[in-house]
Design brief:
Blueprint: E1 18-21, H1 25-36, E2 41-44, H2 48-51, E3 60-61, E4 73-76, H3 81-89, E5 103-106, H4 112-125, E6 128-131, E7 134-135, H5 138-142, E8 147-151, H6 154-167, E9 170-175, H7 179-208, H8 212-220, H9 227-238, H10 248-265, H11 270-284, H12 295-302
Parallel strand pairs: 1-2, 1-4, 2-3, 4-5, 5-6, 8-9
Antiparallel strand pairs: 7-8
Helix pairs in contact: 7-10, 7-11, 7-12, 8-9, 10-11
């Protein structure tokens, strides 16, 4: 994979006009962090109604993607590589006019190969590119506890760091080129493996007779506990899978990216392979607009156990 060796355009002294494309659960929460930090942000979303509430937080809503081309820095947060290519280079795309932004900052979960294609296309246009995937869901973003990992030209990262710090509790530069994509793929592959194992052992404990919320609390307070196990605990206890943070279909996409990366670099990934098949079965059962943690319910049914919601007040660990 190539690295970034071209001349990075300097943004000069701030403040800069920021643009944002993609206002799903994550994008909306992140834009609110930027406006709360005092940054001017213009926003566009394919479904306009999802963008309209951000006006109350200081964002400026535009009618077309191309209306953001005059912004010096444009952030994107979309679902797939093809979605990103479409908003950049498709009909009426951000990069199709005579005026172009100086920098594109992308936080989408996309493939390393797709990201490299986009980098080359942007370099040919004289637009700098920084990859900035994050760890955490919309609730984590709202709580100000995201981790943001960046790759691309180091000088560009340093120029943009004040904006990145408005989005996350910690920001890290891991190297040139698409290395942040590799980090995100590895992160989300572990994401899948951990929820698979957490659901398996929770079903085991409950079938043996340990109340679900007590078992989850004990894991959270053990050496195995993490921010992840804590913020999934209320969902797994209450069975509130309609509160979507990440869908099974998106998790399957990321597991496939993880398996492809393992093949590319010659790394055996047996735990990830088993998890990928479990997630594929979940998708095949028709779970769509629900949280991926519905995996708990499927595993319980496979074990002959019918779960019931627990009426117990639990913390997700994200409160101030």
């Amino acid at each position: 994979m190539s690295t970034s060796t071209h001349q990075t355009p300097s943004l000069g002294e701030g403040p800069h006009q920021l643009g944002w494309i993609g206002l799903g659960r994550m994008g909306e929460a992140m834009v609110k962090k930027l406006t709360a930090a005092g940054h001017a942000v213009k926003v566009w979303n394919r479904t306009r109604s999802k963008a309209e509430p951000l006006v109350a937080y200081g964002a400026v809503l535009v009618d077309h993607k191309a209306d953001l081309a005059a912004c010096e820095v444009v952030f994107t947060m979309v679902s797939t590589t093809d979605d990103l290519k479409e908003v950049l280079f498709g009909d009426g795309g951000l990069m199709t006019g005579s005026t172009l932004p100086k920098v594109l900052v992308d936080s989408s979960s996309i493939s390393q190969e797709g990201s490299e294609e986009i980098r080359h296309a942007l370099q040919a246009l004289g637009v700098a590119y920084l990859c900035t995937p994050v760890s955490g869901n919309a609730k984590v973003a709202k709580a100000g506890k995201l981790l943001l990992v960046a790759s691309g030209p180091h000088a560009l990262y340093l120029e943009l760091e004040p904006y990145l710090r408005a989005l996350a509790r910690k920001v890290m530069w891991v190297g040139e080129g698409e290395l942040a994509r590799v980090w995100k793929i590895a992160h989300n592959t572990m994401f899948g493996v951990v929820i698979q194992n957490l659901c398996e052992i929770t079903v085991l404990a409950e079938k043996a007779g340990i109340p679900r919320h007590l078992f989850l609390e004990s894991i959270n307070d053990s050496v195995l506990g993490s921010m992840y196990t804590r913020y999934k605990t209320p969902v797994l206890s209450h069975l509130s899978f309609e509160n979507v943070t990440f869908t099974p279909k998106l998790l399957l996409k990321d597991m496939d990216l993880g398996m492809a990366a393992g093949k590319t670099y010659g790394v055996p990934m047996p735990a990830a392979a088993a998890t990928r098949e479990s997630v594929a079965r979940m998708v095949g059962r028709g779970h769509d607009q629900v949280d991926f943690s519905i995996l708990l319910q499927d595993l319980a049914l496979d074990s002959g156990l019918t779960l019931a919601p627990e009426d117990v007040k639990l913390s997700d660990g994200l409160e101030s």
